[in-house]
Design brief:
The protein is mainly beta. It binds 2-acetamido-2-deoxy-beta-D-glucopyranose (NAG) (3 copies).
Length: 635
């Protein structure tokens, strides 16, 4: 073991300064990488990599020292450290010290009192994609426990990067830790960047940062969260301790435009007016990396046709090369500034459109608005026989903006009137391709609206959430609820909450008459599922989720409050739900004749599925053996 360590040290010695001591455990071997010799990047690895590291108990310290304006960035290209338990306290492990200060000249010192930022063990998936220091120093301490394993250790690259690349462009508000103001004025650039504290290193916990945007009267604020890594998982943001709330106005009394949590990439926000407030709150125990975002003060109508069309043409070849010349005549942009609703038709409607017609329609809303399209007439090319998709026929393609890119949501063709469509944000694009035409197709008539109520027809909408509705027993003791855009398919990337408030001795009972939520058990991100969840408290991560297709579902609340959360992801769609609700006093509960098999959430789904399976099995048996069964019954 001695010789192999010596070998490794000699290998590193040729590249870096090596010194010993300065460690918690003086027996630690120290390997240092500094930027003082003009070396801004390089690789580092565990002893003997890629052969398994020695099984003898040992400790290795990797110290990375950047220049005064720099921070350290590490990427593991491979990571395999023997993991004995989940929190890496036994077996082998790597301690990461990312908050080491530099005090005076000489190498940074860590002592037994220095707090490490995290401990790593396991395989590549257990290691973070990248590590960043808070200051100029980062230290890795590899501890080998002494158990014989075949773990190969790690190899990675380090880089010293300029910390000034991550400075927020606003003006820091005096006497606050992380509040910034961004004013628009003619002397300054109309755009800039903002970051969570300490980005790209993880943010501290128990903080609240306010980012105030003040545009001029005829301007709006466009904000794009390029990357946002807070807590891992797919919980509702109502259950999260680390969240970003975006208010569509000056203060936190303004309507909430968005609540962001978990991990989000490429999320765009457009203010309704000339003020916007972004509030970042972090109270979880394990802070994430944080966010990076860019902002722009835009003149109203600044997104002119050229730039919009360019962005569409850039982002997908799906429109084909023949777009430009042929489409200009029927290219239309609908802005919510101009009109909140209206209708449009295919060229020459209700007469047949000409062959080779291609039209673009772009819808530009802002703030909380969503685009909703309702088809009033739909008569495209008649196709005989069976077709798998709409590619080779006349069709309408609907595009959404997902992670900053245009993505086709659906293609519509033939003559069946499509159900209403709703966008996942304030923008939507549509392309009509009338390649063939034919004398007896009329084309289409569509009415559009920029809606803020998600086309929900019941409940009282709250402004404190992007999509939340209250059902208050004192105001209505019975009624119905639906998913957003019902009976059309529900929008992607959408969370809506339904809050039921009963009187003191009341509970609410729900009877779903339609239930179609895209997903499979356990209705989580691992199964790429949309879901609904019932909770008896505002914050609740424990309650079971429901998804899939059910003929019927009954649910009764545990007490006089019920939160129903509906959450969709950014792929695949379904038609959602419709449910009747009624508030009942405990004494009335049992006199109702509603089926009682679903009082307890967790057991509902499985019994229904089981019964369906048993029923289908039984029908199959009857179909197979039915004749014989009945014959045997004959006398
Ligand atoms: C390591 O690998 C060798 C050869 O593949 C195997 O014989 C040995 O049992 C392994 N040891 C451990 C601790 O997994
Ligand atoms: C369009 O909006 C106006 C006012 O905003 C409203 O009166 C009208 O009913 C709407 N029309 C449709 C078709 O929704
Ligand atoms: C329910 O409605 C009653 C009567 O209008 C009102 O006093 C109460 O505050 C409402 N409760 C909630 C939670 O909105």
């Amino acid at each position: 073991m001695k010789t192999s360590t010596a070998l490794i040290l000699m290998l590193h010695l040729s590249l870096h300064t090596v010194d010993e001591g300065q460690a918690v455990d003086p027996s630690c071997r120290c390997i240092r990488y500094t930027s003082t010799y003009g070396k801004e990047r390089g690789t580092f690895s565990s002893p003997d990599y890629p052969k398994p590291y020695s099984a003898h108990a040992a400790c290795y310290m990797y110290t990375f020292i950047a220049g005064p304006h720099q921070i350290v960035e590490l990427f593991f290209t491979d990571f395999d450290i023997y993991k004995e338990n989940l929190d890496c306290t036994r077996g082998d492990f790597v301690k990461v010290y990312s908050e080491v200060g530099v005090h005076g000249p000489g190498p940074p010192v860590i002592t037994e009192y220095t707090m490490w930022s995290r401990v790593l063990c396991g395989n590549r998936a257990d290691a973070p994609p990248a590590l960043y220091s808070h200051g100029p120093v980062l230290i890795l301490e590899l501890n080998v426990g002494g158990k014989a394993t075949n773990a190969t250790g790690f190899i990675g690259t380090f880089k010293f990067i300029d910390r000034r690349n991550f400075e927020t462009d606003g003006v820091h508000v005096q006497d606050t830790w992380c509040d910034y103001v961004f004013d628009s004025n003619s002397n300054k650039l109309a755009y800039g960047r903002l970051y969570s504290p300490r980005y790209p290193s993880s943010y501290p916990n128990n903080i609240r940062c306010n980012y105030h945007f003040n545009a001029r009267k005829n301007e709006r604020i466009k904000l794009v969260f390029e990357e946002l890594f807070l807590q891992k998982g797919d919980e509702s943001c109502l259950n999260r301790a680390d969240v970003i709330k975006v208010y569509d106005g000056r203060s936190s009394t303004a309507p909430v435009l968005s609540i962001l949590c978990n991990e989000v990439v490429g999320y765009e926000i457009l203010s309704t007016g000339h003020e916007l407030l972004v509030q970042f709150t972090a109270n979880s125990n394990i802070p994430g990396q944080g966010f990076k975002a860019r902002y722009q003060f835009q003149m109203e109508d600044n997104e002119n046709e050229d730039s919009l069309k360019a962005s569409i043409d850039d982002s997908g070849s799906s429109f084909g090369p023949a777009v430009s010349a042929a489409t200009s005549s029927c290219h239309q942009i609908f802005r919510s500034d101009k009109s909140k609703n209206g209708s449009f038709t295919s060229p020459k409607y209700p007469l047949s459109y000409l062959p080779n017609t291609q039209c673009h329609y772009d819808f530009l809303g802002k703030g909380r608005e969503r685009v909703r399209l309702v088809f009033e007439d739909f008569s495209l090319q008649k196709v005989t026989g069976h077709i798998m998709d709409c590619d080779s026929t006349d069709s309408i393609d609907i595009f959404l903006y997902v992670e900053g890119r245009l993505e086709k949501m659906v293609s519509l063709c033939r003559n069946d009137l499509p159900k209403p469509i709703m966008s996942n944000g304030p923008k939507l694009s549509m392309v009509f391709r009338g390649l063939h035409s034919s004398g007896n197709s009329r084309g289409f008539k569509i009415s559009y609206a920029f809606v803020t109520d998600y086309a929900l027809k019941s409940g009282q909408q709250l402004l404190e959430f992007p999509c939340a509705f209250v059902f208050n027993s004192s105001e209505r003791s019975r009624g119905f609820i639906t998913s957003p855009n019902y009976p059309g398919i529900y929008p992607r990337d959408t969370e809506c909450n339904y809050f039921f408030y009963g009187n003191r001795d009341e509970r609410v009972r729900l009877h779903f008459t339609h239930f179609d939520i895209e997903g499979v058990i356990p209705c989580k991100a691992v199964s790429a599922s949309d879901y609904i969840q019932f909770s008896s408290q505002m914050v609740d991560v424990e309650s079971p989720r429901y998804c899939g297709q059910l003929n019927e579902l009954h649910f009764t609340s545990k007490n006089n409050f019920l939160k129903l959360t509906f959450k969709s992801n950014d792929r695949l769609d379904a038609t959602g739900f419709h449910a009747d609700y009624i508030f009942l006093r405990d004494s009335e509960m049992h006199s109702m004749t509603m089926p009682e098999f679903a009082d307890n959430g967790a057991t509902t789904l499985i019994p229904i599925l089981l019964w369906q399976i048993i029923l289908i099995k039984f029908i199959n048996i009857v179909l197979q053996y039915g004749d014989n069964m009945f014959e045997n019954l004959k006398f």
